[in-house]
Amino acid sequence: MESYELDARDDELRRLEEAVGQAGNGRGVVVTITGPIACGKTELLDTAAAKGDAITLRAVCSEEEQALPYALIGQLIDNPALASQVPDPATMAFPGEHLSPEAENRLRSDLTRTLLALAAERPVLIGIDDVHHADTASLNCLLHLARRVGSARIAMVLTELRRLTPAHSQFQAELLSLGHHREIALRPLNPKHIAELARAGLGPDVDEDVLTGLCRATGGNLNLSHGLIKDVREAWATGETGINAGRAYRLAYLGSLYRCGPVPLRVARVAAVLGQSANTTLVRWISGLNADAVGEATEILTEGGLLHDLRFPHPAARSVVLNDMSARERRRLHRSALEVLDDVPVEVVAHHQVGAGLMHGPKAAELFAKAGQELHVRGELDAASDYLQLAHQASDDAVTRAALRVEAVAIERRRNPLASSRHLDELTVAARAGLLSPEYAALVIRWLAVGGRSGEAAEVLASQRPRAVTDRDRAHMRAAEVSLALVSPDASGPDRQPRPVPPDELANLPKAARLSATADNAVMSALRGRPELAAAEAENVLKHADSAAVGTTALAALTALLYAESTDTAQLWADKLVSETGASNEEEAGYAGPRAEAALRRGDLAAAVEAGSAILDHRRLSSLGVTAALPLSSAVAAAIRLGETERAEKWLAEPLPQAIQDSLYGLHLLSARGQYSLATGRHEAAYTAFRICGERMQNWGVDVPGLSLWRVDAAEALLHGRDRDEGRRLIDEQLTRAMGPRSRALTLRAQAAYSPPAKRVDLLDEAADLLLSCNDRYERARVLADLSEALSALRHHSRARGLLRQARHLAAQCGATPLLRRLGAKPGGPGWPEESGLPQRIKSLTDAERRVASLAAGGQTNRVIADQLFVTASTVEQHLTNVFRKLGVKGRQQLPAELANAE
């Protein structure tokens, strides 16, 4: 036992050493070391034996040898010190026969006499492990000796698994009556001792969360602690973080479990099969054990850290118990569970249905489908998808199978949109064949449209209209028509421009479809020039959307807020969706577009690039279909303003679905290409891109500034050409249109560029005031720069210099190096952006990640962080995992100190 382990057993070791020492001085003793499984009983005995100079006789009892008479005694007399003086029990009877009473008495007497004689010459220590597994005949010999060691130099040390009713109650009762008997009771290791073990095995700077996880996964069991620490050490050596329960932990768990005996083993196996449904009554019914047996076995397992309230301390523990059983035994237990379970969630029944091997037929299909649907509502996407796939395989009905495929794809799109697209051909065929309900056909139409297959979507829509015979069916088709028109305005044809779904038809739709249609209505309201209505509809959707209605519905609502020029509201909801709803990685990727665009409109260029690059640098564009144009265009525009034109060029060269060109989202891409051309001095190409964007917006009836200020952009491109009259006309035309403060400020800035110096000042003053309320630092820096130049031209140098300093400060905050160069700033000189003191790798963190990391670096636990930020503990854990990966650290103890002061 290592020194740090001895510290945990310091008092018990002292008492044992005192007892052994007394025996060495002629005051014999019998010591029973009791405790839960794997708490260090054997290690304590070994340590005490190693410190003395006594003759040591050792034996280890096992369940397999419990039925063999004198198996324990046979181990003791195998020692050379006894072999020639005590007869071997195996030679004292014929094979298969028990010793006669006379032979038994002779064996006991010979053993006791020999040991007493041996002790007269030198102290003797008899150490016996797991005496609860000893055979009865050997125990009688030990009892014969125990009664006579009081005045001898003999220490008998027995280790025993503590239980309410001892395995050999008569033997234990006899020992308790002896005046020279002592009991040393060990308890499981406490958190302090486990922390000492962890620091000795993993290093002194072990994260507090790791220590908490070790305690929870081991329950104070010494063997489990050693195994898990070994697994963690090996995992950390390969760059992994957190707690990884591997082979050593699993073997330690099985070893501890088998040492508990057959009854606790049976209880643990039943608990493993029942999972979260396990309770004492169910375990008793399925195991066939009586209440007392289950109670005692549960106590042994609980005290040994192997179970807690019939729950396993770590998923790996349950897994290894299940894998240790034969397939036949698992099926038998699952079938037994099906017979006794009542009033439990449907997914629990489905779990046992699978375990029992009952996988086919309409009842199984119905059960699996219900389980998948329930799990979907709860946001447990992986399990929901699995059960819906099982339901699909269990059913032979074509209509049922088609519906199940739609439900499975709806879930898979939240997990992996790219992978889910492989089913679209199958679903398109099913829709044309009339196998899908209008509700599910509407979903397929939306997926086809977003996936860039608007022509097929229109064909499915046309095939479904005659089948829509009820008000609800027609409402689904109207909603699908609106979705298709928003993604691909030309798909419905020039003579069929859909209107928003009216309230009476919305009322006919189920919740998820109603929210989706309302979100599309919000986008349409914004594109038809009704921003207040659009913002109200979008926020209503976001407030009421549950975990099963996020994804494309939330994306549409966020897009509506952007088109309605409610930038701050869009940013707030986008961050909220990512941090508080437990969004999957793919859903978070789907929100990258609105987040990037909102950051761009607030002048937070680095955040815009980061949101976009999370998609672009991981090659997930294809998974977003035509909506990929939004994060791409925002990131490109931000990169250009940061002076990263090569990065922007690389992103613009990314392969994209051809259908993007004819989609609403393609307008963003056209605008981004125009911005790139403008930044690289190709003004004619920039004007052409902006002009094409405007023509499409006008043709599609979506000419609103929240989508694109194409007239202002085109006028800026014309500033460098000859047709300045066209530029003025475009600006005058834009000023006649309704727009929000930011759009008006940008238009006024463009108007000022076409105006004489005296008029510029008033226009730019108004633009600067408008941008104060918009929180767009970049555009305000540009306006202040223009205003400074205009004032300098009018010889108002004092005010001009003050505005120049403000413009430089704002540009430096944004990291806008091209603008800074225009303002005369030089790298490293006054006005150039200074490092914030945080390393570059810290600046790669998102706002949410930085908030979590800051609190973690300050010593807060995950639970405290979750409470302070009003998010779930799992969200905190997910953010920390990303933080550790980005910063290249293994735990919170290694987080840079600068984070503690980061906002």
What do you see in this structure?
The chain has 903 residues and is mainly α. Helix 7 (136-146) links the parallel strand 3 (124-129) and strand 4. The longest helix has 21 residues, at 101-121. It is elongated and about 125 Å long.
Please give a handful of descriptors for the protein shown.
single chain, mainly alpha, 64% helix, 5 strands, 5-stranded parallel β-sheet, 903 residues, 49 helices
The averaged pLDDT comes out at 87
**Beta-strand residue percentage:** under 5%
Strand order of the largest sheet: 2-3-4-1-5
Gyration radius over CA: 38 Å
Give the count of helical stretches.
49
- Going by helix content, strand content and strand pairing, the class is mainly alpha
Show unreliable segments. Answer: 1-6
Please give the alpha-carbon distance between the first and last residues: 47 Å
The helix content is 55-70%
Main sheet, how many strands, which sense, barrel?
Answer: 5 strands, parallel
The gross shape turns out to be elongated
Q: How many distinct beta strands?
A: 5
